[in-house]
């Protein structure tokens, strides 16, 4: 009982730190939590070391892609996307409807290619600015950013930290993973468009005829080229079992060196700013959190969840797996839920692993605690959320999210039955 209590305290402390702390304070809690479970013997050093080594490439990719996303933002790519959204909406017969559609599609693509953190931190302010520039209420686009950051993260193995954690366990190639998830991704993106449209007020704040024409800024060409090549290498390399951390790191180094040496004020970025963008303390915190979750799994957490998971790969069984994962993500956060559930789902088959990812990805939109992306969005100083943001977020999350999890899982199961795993 003492070992179980230590594991619960350590995992709980990490969850609280993830929700309310950041930076060095968050790291300190993680180190203390990992030290507690190691010190009392709740997890063996060998098991803890294996958990950290398994997660290192994933965490390395997270650091590299956060730096790369910051450099891409510095190169004007996100401003360019926001300009395209605003210009496309202004030319439409119904600017409000077109604005939401373009924002949803942009958030879905950015999430899939550059991870959900890029959407909530870098794209969300640009979309909100586009709405205000057209005299529109920014809330629907604000909501689109955070919801699509979760739901659209199921497409690629590199779209979400949880996907990377589970990718090897699924035993699928990069393209096979994507093929199995693509129909479900299309369905949930379409559904999110409906959700965001319902959040939109019927009238514009300012008549579009009085809004000045939108100028679309030109992005830095080298940034676009490096980004395109990097994404292509990640996809092709995934088929060859190349860890995505390496192309992401190479791109970050290329653009980072240019940002440090260039004399162009818009592109220049000090190395200290780049290091801060990588959120290294948070990356180390994630590794410590993994040790605490491993202890929790070893001390009965895995057995408890195992009793809740069905063994089959039929649609009904996979829906249950996804719903259990959704509940676990919103109680524990999606990362520890993934670390606990994937080892239990992997022996059942790749469909069960993908069902877990639907649950912790799409299902993370139910509550603030569902994903760290929700918290990054909520704390983003560049966003001006409405005063009742919590009520609005959870009204959509609790009502719609479970339905989307069921539908997405059923579509994924049907795709797996058609194309095979």
TrEMBL record:
Citrate transporter-like domain location: 17-352
Transmembrane segments: 28-44, 100-131, 169-191, 222-239, 245-262, 274-297, 317-342, 398-419
Alphabetic keyword roster: Arsenical resistance, Cell membrane, Membrane, Transmembrane, Transmembrane helix, Transport
Superkingdom in the source lineage: Bacteria
Membrane topology, from the record: Multi-pass membrane protein
One Pfam family linked to the record: CitMHS
InterPro entries linked: Arsenical_pump_ArsB (IPR000802), Cit_transptr-like_dom (IPR004680)
A single GO cellular-component term on record: plasma membrane
GO BP: response to arsenic-containing substance
GO MF, one example: arsenite transmembrane transporter activity
Location within or outside the cell: Cell membrane
PANTHER family listed in its UniProt record: TRANSPORTER ARSB-RELATED
Similarity annotation: Belongs to the ArsB family. Belongs to the CitM (TC 2.A.11) transporter family.
Name this polypeptide is given: Arsenical pump membrane protein
């Amino acid at each position: 009982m003492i070992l179980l209590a230590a594991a619960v305290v350590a995992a709980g402390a990490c969850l609280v730190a993830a929700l309310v702390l950041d930076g060095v304070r968050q790291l300190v809690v993680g180190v203390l939590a990992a030290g507690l479970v190691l010190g009392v013997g709740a997890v063996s050093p060998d098991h803890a070391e294996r958990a950290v080594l398994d997660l290192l490439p994933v965490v390395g990719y997270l650091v590299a892609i956060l730096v790369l996303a910051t450099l891409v933002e510095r190169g004007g790519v996100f401003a360019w996307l926001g300009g395209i959204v605003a210009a496309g909406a202004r030319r439409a017969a119904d600017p409000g409807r077109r604005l939401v559609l373009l924002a949803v599609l942009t958030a879905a693509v950015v999430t899939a290619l550059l991870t959900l953190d890029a959407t909530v931190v870098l794209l969300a302010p640009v979309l909100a600015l586009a709405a205000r520039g057209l005299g529109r209420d920014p809330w629907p686009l604000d909501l689109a950013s955070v919801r699509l950051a979760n739901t659209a993260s199921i497409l690629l193995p590199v779209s979400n930290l949880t996907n990377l954690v589970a990718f090897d366990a699924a035993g699928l190639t990069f393209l096979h993973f994507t093929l199995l998830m693509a129909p479900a991704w299309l369905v949930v993106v379409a559904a999110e468009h409906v959700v965001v449209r319902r959040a939109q007020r019927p009238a514009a704040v300012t008549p579009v005829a009085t809004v000045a024409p939108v100028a679309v800024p030109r992005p830095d060409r080298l940034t676009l080229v490096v980004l395109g090549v990097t994404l292509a290498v990640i996809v092709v390399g995934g088929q060859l079992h190349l860890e995505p951390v390496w192309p992401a790191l190479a791109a970050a180094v290329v653009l980072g060196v240019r940002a440090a040496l260039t004399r162009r004020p818009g592109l220049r970025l000090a190395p200290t700013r780049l290091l801060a963008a990588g959120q290294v303390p948070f990356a180390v915190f994630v590794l410590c959190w993994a040790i605490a979750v491993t202890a929790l799994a070893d001390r009965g957490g895995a057995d408890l969840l195992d009793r809740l998971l069905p063994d089959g790969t039929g649609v009904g069984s996979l829906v249950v797996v996804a719903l259990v994962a959704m509940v676990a993500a919103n109680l524990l956060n999606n990362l520890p839920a993934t670390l606990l559930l994937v080892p239990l789902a992997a022996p059942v088959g790749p469909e069960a692993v993908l069902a877990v990812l639907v649950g912790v990805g799409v299902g993370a939109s139910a509550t603030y605690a569902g994903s760290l992306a929700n918290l990054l969005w909520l704390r983003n100083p560049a966003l001006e959320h409405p005063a009742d943001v919590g009520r609005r977020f959870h009204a959509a999350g609790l009502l719609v999210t479970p339905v989307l999890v069921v539908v997405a899982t059923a579509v994924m199961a049907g795709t797996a039955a058609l194309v095979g795993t």
